What does this fold into?
Amino acid sequence: METSAPADTGDLTEQPASARRAPALGFEHTFAERLEGLFVAWEPRGFAEPSLIELNRSLWVELGLPDLDDDTAARVFSASLLPEDARPVAQVYAGHQFGGFSPQLGDGRALLLGEIVDRHGRRRDIHLKGSGPTPFSRGGDGKASVGPVLRETIMGEAMHHLGIPTTRALAAVATGEVVYRDRPLPGAVLARVAASHLRVGTLQFAAGPNGRGSLEPLVSYALERHYPDRAGTGAPARELLHAVADAQGRLIAQWMLVGFIHGVMNTDNMTLSGETIDYGPCAFLEAYDPSTVFSSIDHRGRYAFGNQPSIGQWNLLRMGEALLSLLAPDRDQAIEHVRGALAVYLERFEGTLLDGFRRKLGLAGEAPEDAALVSGWLEWMQSSKQDFTLAFRRLAQGLLDGTPAFDDDAFLAWHEQYRARLGNEPGVAVAARMNAVNPLYIARNHLVEEALAAAVDERDLTPFRALVEVLQNPYREQPGRERYTEPAPSTFGPYVTFCGT
Ligand code: AMP
Ligand code: MG
It folds into this structure.
């Protein structure tokens, strides 16, 4: 968490934004109606002169929101003008952060405005990050700045277009205020859309001494909202634990398949929905190495690329502990259910991972040697420091060209086994399959930094917009955009990412 000088909270209620109201957006409030005790209602103070940086039009349409002019959108999505039907709340949660338990965290710089049922019937939260101090801000200023807000926008779009479940940015709004970090920065608010903001940490809070009876309602609510097929069995806590194990096993495997490093997998940053959330110190891997860490605060590599699968499991264990009293009347039996969930997680993780690598390597069907073939490929990538993204594309290119993509002995030895496994399917067909699942464009660190620097230092949004546009089509070659495929130049780095928006 980044903090600045203590926020001026003396006049938080001065000029509440609700004094004026924007037209209704169609909000519903099932969370606030059903989960008393897990939030505080909060009137944001808003900003005098907010202006729209970015609005995701296609997401807007998907949500079925009514048209708003840019000025109204800027006011609404900076919490400066509340829609008539908004009911802003700051959610409370707990969480294990870098292994240590904080019994009370919460939206210290964010507010949930309400839920929108989108055009596909999915209920989605509209949440504002950087909207000002709340009772959970403690030492923080409740603010966010343009750089991290745009980073979250870029990363969410990158993940979405890679087919990975994620929260997404609906809007980024400049507040016109200065936010003080290590230097003065332009302030911003991110309007974030999520399947919900329920986290493992929400369950941990509800299970704790201040949860006051909210655990059971929370479990039922989460199950009905995210896993309705599993509701109504009479064992909601078990169902929820298993469902989250399944969703997170799949999600984290998907991260591993594209080289995504979340960077801060605290239990308050692990959703019950199975969406990726909280793009702070995250980054995509370039040279393949499981020990890669980018985050400036992750000194021990707890959240290193290769640790993510076991951290996911560790977090699930914390979820199991929070639910223990509801899993079974008998403690040993309850522990058995937690074990069962961990097995579900592992099975789903390993299955998704192996399946994903089969597809990335163009292997048709399943063969007993596939796992070893994948390991051999990863070992070779690591020892020869291959770019995780490009290596798969080059491998496919080799099949197209009819010559092995790389010429060192270790690769050639592996490639012989690989060719044998591919059998006599034409290289063109295999390569086409591979290129449809191996991205050519990812949110490379130097491109993200370039886009953020231009936006923050020069108020030039062109590189940001160009990058977001490229990332909308990660698989198909985009002529003229070759530079977006290239790894960071040697002059860039070592790369370090920072927490906090
Ligand atoms: P995060 O790093 O976004 O997962 O945030 C962890 C916790 O710190 C959450 O409870 C946030 O609400 C809180 N937090 C982070 N930054 C700020 C800030 N600038 N002002 C107040 N609270 C913050
Ligand atoms: Mg968080």
Remarks:
- The first strand starts at residue 21 and ends at 22.
